[in-house]
Write a structure and sequence with these properties.
two-stranded antiparallel ribbon; 14% strand
Length: 467
Amino acid sequence: MTSSPSLGTDLVRRLRQGELTSAALTEACLGQVERLEGELRAFVTVTPDVARARAAEADAVLADGRSLGSLHGLPVAIKDNIDTAGIRTTVGSAFFRDRVPDADAEVWRRLEAAGAVLIGKAQLHEFAYGATTQNPHHGSCRNPWDTARIPGGSSGGSGSSVAAGMAAAALGTDTGGSVRIPASLNGLSGIRPTLGRVPNTGVFYVAWSFDTVGPLARSIADCAEILAVMSGYCPTDPMSVDRPVEDFVAALSAGTAGLRVGVPRNFFFEDIDADIVALVRAAADVLADLGVSVEDVDVPGIEEANDACTRIIWAEAYAQHRERLAEQPSLFGEDLQRRLVLAHDVAGHDYARYRQLGRRWRRTLAELFERVDVLLSPTAGTDVPEVGSEMIETTVRLTHLTYGWSLAGLTALSIPCGFAQSGMPVGLQLAAAPWGEADLIRLAAAYESATSWHERQPPLATAAPAA
């Protein structure tokens, strides 16, 4: 059995250049699954036979001087609300426990065509609607940095699996923070693309207005490679935007010349754990030392934006599940039932008002982005909650700093910037105007080059396997 320290970072490049074989990397991941899955519960379904066959194909093709694509041989986990043909996709629910799609989601079709290897379907919060990934149907997913703590959510299995070395990278979905929060809590990089950048065809929604698929990995380079493959117009997705895709991989080495970063004076550093504030402000200092223009800015209207995003998500999630809730309520977990019925407080005229507030909020931020290119803040303002924390309250705490960017349709990412006094990872959140992914990647790559937080792995993951 190969242990996870061989995984490292920048795996896409290393596979492509022949520094690693796909078979060895895949066996390292499957070995970690065998060793740690019983404790972490990061997967709903593991696909070892599929993975080994694909990895062998990748190595044979490379030996013949050819390539499967830009993700040649990369072992990945796919959140279990993203369809995979012939492999069950449960959406973390009892309703779809035995559902086996007959077609791939467009994002997985693109990744597989580029050479990716499927390790399995990652655990998620039930119906992707919560930030704890304490799933009553498929198990309580744990954080590999401390198994008494949650991995975040709703893409908790995606974050836990990559941090534990069970996968080299993963796909998650982000409504109000469900890629960024697991990235932060598990010490990873994770990108929420601009809504419309990545197709949602074959992905189960939480809220039509906000949902998008994004990558998680141990380096921003691997995230950029995956995002490049996923991006682009899809005519079967009504949210997809027909817009040229920038060269995200080239952005990794583009430097930071001319980039302007705004650090909010209000809201984003208020009532935040002191050690998190210190780490994020230190990250801003690192960027300033790299020559980035860093200035304090006001972000007016953020409190109202957070409230509006909350109520819109409530209403749209309830619309998704209204019939199921009426006809088979016992198939829902108790915490999800309680969260779904919060939508009863959102009348139609309220929903219309919140949507209009969202339009004004986007205009406010558009004006702010005339002054700066990127906004910098913590990803989560509190230490990683313990397993058993009340779901709705915990979700509110963890999404406090991410919802506003979702309402505005921004692109945002989280990268590691240190560790709290508890020893748990802390994430730095960077947000840019719609279609500004390349600027975020430029900035994140520069920060990574000047620090080593992203290279750290949980002791649980790097411990020698039992003989």
